[in-house]
Specification:
By secondary structure, the protein is α+β, with helices and mostly antiparallel strands. It is built from 4 helices and 14 strands.
Length: 233
């Protein structure tokens, strides 16, 4: 607020008569009001996870089975955590069921395991029992998948059949002829851990169940079920 006060006084003598003029005091008041409005914007961001852990775990498992079908050792080795353990089992005895049980631990040993399976013709594990021409196919698959409540671990249990041509195991049965088609039934139990947004195998058990020698084979219309009415199991 600005306040200005002016006082002025003038005395005039004229024709022997004194006249006194007194000015009026003038007061001027100026008020300036400044209004400042502060606007505060609050933004709430809700980050919703777009990662479906069950779906990604399913995809990871399917990639694992696909790598086994194609015997892609590099891809297989990358699917395990550093200190993972791989166990393999097979039925005891039988013409088509060599008894081999064991385990390997660590990335280096697991990689060596798959390399030996790929290149070896000896029955050193259940996977070397599979002498199918690569890539072979998979069918009759049942899968059970669970993710822990803290979303840091997962489990996959499955049964499936690998089937295809076996060039080195053609055989003849009287009245049926020659066949080189085989089907291998296997069971998998795999424990996963979530690391850096990726599911990695911590423990895996591969169970070799049986092999069928197949003559007349056929698939369901969608290709998911393989029928092998073979004479042996």
């Amino acid at each position: 607020m600005a306040l200005t006060i002016v006082f002025a006084s003038t005395t005039v003598y004229e024709s022997g008569m004194r006249t006194t003029l007194t000015s009026t005091s003038t007061s001027t008041s100026t008020a300036t009001s400044v209004s400042t409005t502060t606007s505060t914007a609050t933004q709430t961001t809700i980050v919703a996870s777009t990662l479906d852990l069950t779906k990604t775990l399913t995809d990871t498992y399917l990639s694992h089975i696909g790598a086994i079908e194609s015997q892609n050792v590099t891809a297989l080795a990358a699917q395990y955590e550093a200190n993972a353990t791989l166990l393999y089992t097979s039925p005891q005895g039988g013409v088509f069921s060599p008894s081999q049980d064991g385990s390997v631990s660590g990335i280096a040993n697991i990689t060596r395991f798959y390399e030996e399976n790929k290149n070896s013709s000896q029955y050193v594990s259940c996977l070397t029992c599979i002498t199918l021409k690569v890539p072979f196919a998979v069918a009759n698959e049942t899968i059970s998948i669970t993710v822990s409540s803290n979303e840091k671990a997962g489990n996959v249990t499955s049964d499936l059949v690998f089937y295809g041509n076996c060039p080195i195991c053609s055989f003849y049965v009287q009245g049926l002829g020659v066949s080189n088609i085989e089907a291998y039934a296997m069971g998998f139990h795999i424990s996963y851990v979530l690391q850096g947004g990726r599911w990695l195998i911590s423990t895996e058990s591969q169970a070799y169940i049986y092999v069928d020698k197949c003559f007349t084979t056929y698939l369901s219309p969608d290709g998911s079920v393989f029928y092998c009415p073979g004479p042996y199991r």
